[in-house]
Write a structure and sequence with these properties.
By secondary structure, the protein is α+β, with helices and mostly antiparallel strands. It contains seven helices and four strands, in the order αβαβαβαβααα. The longest helix has 17 residues.
Length: 149
Amino acid sequence: MASYVKFEVPKEISDRVINAVSVAKDTGKIRKGANEATKSIESGKAKIVVIAADVNPEEIVMHLPILCEEKGVPFVYVPTKAELGKAIGIAVSCAAIAIEDLGGAKGEIEDIVAKLGQKMPESGKEEKKEQKEQKPTKLSKEKKGKKKE
């Protein structure tokens, strides 16, 4: 087991993850590759991250579990990057993916996350509403006052 793999995922669950990724590819939105997954996590769009357990050199994906824990994004491992690449419909292997829109795989992924003892991230819509409802600052009030004169 690679040093970045924090927990063992049973074969049954990893197979379900691969199937869910295939469904999400068709009905939702995924980001392919370690760099794209990192961007998705940092921007708060990732709902779940899937990481291959056989990546070499390990440094390519070593930061992903730590970043996921910091941002509260669930993550899971699959045995090989070849399986992950095949699941997302590309001819080459893939070290990691982030699912931004679960699509038709929502129920399956929520069940997998619950079995792994992790939590799904809250939707960012509430945060956006709170930002819009903020009162105007003094500066914007002053600008309005000057326009009236």
